[in-house]
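Quick question, first post here. What does this chain look like in 3D?
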Amino acid sequence: QRNDLSITFVIQEGAQYTFSGLTITGNEIFSTEQLASCMKLKEGAIFNMIKFEEGMAAIANVYYESGYMSNGFYPVPQRDTDRKEISYNLVIEERARSHIENILVKGNNKTKDYVILREIPIESGDIFSREKVIAAMRNLYSLQYFSNVIPDVLQGSEENLVDLVFNVEETSTVGINLGMAFSGITEPNDIPVSVYATISNSNLFGEGKGFSSSLNIAKKTQSLEFSYNQNWIGDYPIA
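> Answer (accepted):
Ran it through. Tokens below.
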């Protein structure tokens, strides 16, 4: 008279298989030796699906880094139940290089699109390059405007066209610093207190320009300072 249910999982363990190798067919752009060297799972080792999939991803990255984004990769397993071995035949369907159709930016509510796009060293019409995508991420993080940058590749309007999307999460670029300092008294009428305040914005109006102002007030000295900086003039970066 209870509503409880006991569930028992019965596991029937099979035999342990070893990895007996990988053959690759369909590859003309890159040699079999170059692609096979990406495999982390070595022949004769206990078969490990995670390591095998990591090797498949590494082989695909060899193509992706050179702009071949539309290739097909089809690993076909071959089991030898008598010897307890498993091998794979990787069939690669090579296609033409992919070109960038559009570069899109998403998630930026403050930062202007052109501020982000000028940091991306790839343009519409270029051959897709994984290395340039990584360089773009490095450039965007170095701005310190974003807490997260996630690139994504989407299918374009045609087979060999892709849209490159950068999803960003903005972080605060405004800094405010208030303080008070105490110094020793050298004269009876001295006020041993000084006050300072600083406000800064490294992404003013979302245009990638920096501005800061600082105020220092003491009995004998007072100062007010302003600074302005930008890293680009038109389409040209400056140092």
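The chain has a mean pLDDT of 91.
The CA atoms of residues 16 and 84 lie 7 Å apart.
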